[in-house]
Design a protein that fits this description.
Layout: H1 5-9, H2 15-18, H3 21-34, E1 37-42, E2 45-51, H4 54-61, E3 67-68, H5 78-84, H6 96-107, H7 112-134, E4 139-141, H8 142-147, H9 149-159, H10 166-177, H11 190-213, H12 219-224, E5 227-228, E6 231-232, H13 235-266, H14 268-276, H15 281-292, E7 297-302, E8 306-308, E9 311-313, E10 318-322, H16 323-326, H17 361-375, E11 379-384, E12 403-408
Parallel strand pairs: 2-10
Antiparallel strand pairs: 1-2, 3-7, 4-12, 5-6, 7-10, 8-9, 11-12
Protein name: Cytochrome P450
GO biological process, one term: cholesterol catabolic process
InterPro entries: Cyt_P450, Cyt_P450_B, Cyt_P450_CS, Cyt_P450_sf
Length: 410
């Protein structure tokens, strides 16, 4: 069936479309050509404008004074918006000076100097992950057996959470982000989703209370004991900060590492380029991030009338910013549908842009480089060994499974 503007716009409200890259990206390419700013209406969602071109999305992200993160930060059905409104506000939902002050609480933990101090520990965890892969006998589900644990170990060790809690936190974060996927969510009942959030918030609030009473010099302690305008953060706000770091700090990086290994299995020539020249690892990490784009979108709300790409936007209208579409924009990327580990420059928007650019971007890049740096010298053969479905989602996307066969040295 041929695409129309209306049918193409509906991919943004269909979780199954996010799990079908060919369909989703075809619709985005059509919209970039025919209707780069399109109004989407669906009975289960409040209306919004979808932006699909890189330049238009950058324009919005560069103007946080006119396009606010609140009150609608990501796309969700109306039934689930009520659940999300009961959560504490995190920095991704803040604007203006409030955002800047709260961002500074953790900024020093993600500077280049901080990343250099952390590099040895991240490399050791990457080596442990590759050793585990080597010990699995040449066949595994890469997502479940390797990719999920490694980034989670990195961020939870930074926070200082005990390793005995990692499995429970992994399960809760998967259920929290996989609310629209029947394989990941606890159930289809919005009340159960509220229970997942309550369980996760309960754990994190207890951790915040403990770090405030007995600081231990870790990232969790720094947040729990931070002061804004001379006052400590409320415990629910500390828990919200932890939740953002736990979810954003591991799920998106897991998706990138898994999607990157799948790409290297699909394109062995690219894999050999990396094996022959490890100096390409920084460029490869960014290309993997662009290729996967795990955070598919964010939203903004216009506070005054404006015009974007010739379309009138009214004050109060919601804008859906399709990062996944922007990262395949032909006006920005040469051969955007080609996976190229030598791609430079790489102006992808997978980490956002402007004042809300992801704080954890340097950490994610380092984790991907470290893992590939440990894997590729030992990897001799690699192939995908079965179906690798993507999660059905409206926000954070990634492979649910990746069966692979491989041969490793050592």
């Amino acid at each position: 069936m041929s695409l129309t503007v209306a049918s193409a716009g509906r991919v943004f409200v269909d979780p199954r479309a996010y799990a079908d890259p060919e369909r989703f990206l075809a619709a985005c390419a059509f919209l970039r050509r025919e209707a780069p700013v399109v109004r989407v209406e669906h009975e289960d969602f409040r209306p919004f404008w979808a932006l699909t071109r890189h330049a238009d999305i950058v324009r919005v992200l560069r103007d946080p004074g006119r396009f606010l993160s609140e009150p609608r930060i990501t796309l969700a059905p109306k039934a689930y918006e009520a659940v999300s409104k009961r959560r504490s506000v995190s920095i991704i939902q803040m604007d203006g000076p409030e955002h800047d002050v709260h961002r500074r609480i953790v900024a020093d933990w993600f500077t280049p100097r901080a990343m250099r101090r952390l590099e040895q520990d991240v490399t050791a965890l990457a080596r442990r992950a590759v050793d585990r892969m080597a010990g699995l006998g040449g066949e595994c589900d890469f997502v479940a057996d390797v990719a999920r644990a490694y980034p989670l170990q990195v961020i939870l060790s930074m926070l200082g959470f005990p390793e005995r809690d990692y499995d429970a936190l992994l399960r809760l974060t998967q259920q929290s982000l996989g609310v629209l996927d029947e394989d990941l969510r606890r159930s289809a009942d919005p009340a159960d989703q509220a229970a997942v959030v309550a369980d996760l918030v309960g754990y994190l609030t207890d951790a915040a209370r403990e770090r405030r009473a007995r600081p231990t010099g870790d990232l969790a302690s720094a947040i729990a004991n931070a002061r804004v305008d001379g006052r400590p953060l409320d415990l629910p706000d500390v828990a919200a900060y932890y939740m953002l770091l736990v979810t954003a700090g591991h799920d998106t990086t897991t998706s990138c590492i898994a999607g990157g290994v799948q790409a290297l299995a699909r394109f062995p020539g690219q894999r050999e380029l990396l094996r022959a020249d490890p100096g390409l690892l920084p460029a490869a990490a960014d290309e993997i991030i662009r290729w996967v784009t795990p955070t598919t979108e964010f939203m903004r709300t216009a506070i005054e009338d404006c015009v974007i790409a010739g379309v009138g936007i009214a004050a109060g209208d919601a804008l859906y910013l399709s990062y996944r579409s922007a990262n395949r924009d032909e006006e920005v990327f040469a051969s955007p549908d080609v996976f190229d580990v030598r791609r430079r420059p790489n102006r992808h928007l997978a980490f956002g842009h402007g004042v809300h650019h992801c704080l954890g971007a340097p950490l994610a890049r380092m984790e991907i480089r470290a893992f590939l740096g440990e894997l590729l010298p030992r990897l001799r053969e690699l192939e995908q060994a079965g179906d690798a479905p993507l999660s059905e989602t409206l926000f954070v996307s990634g492979l649910k499974r990746l069966p692979i066969r491989y041969r490793m040295a050592g």
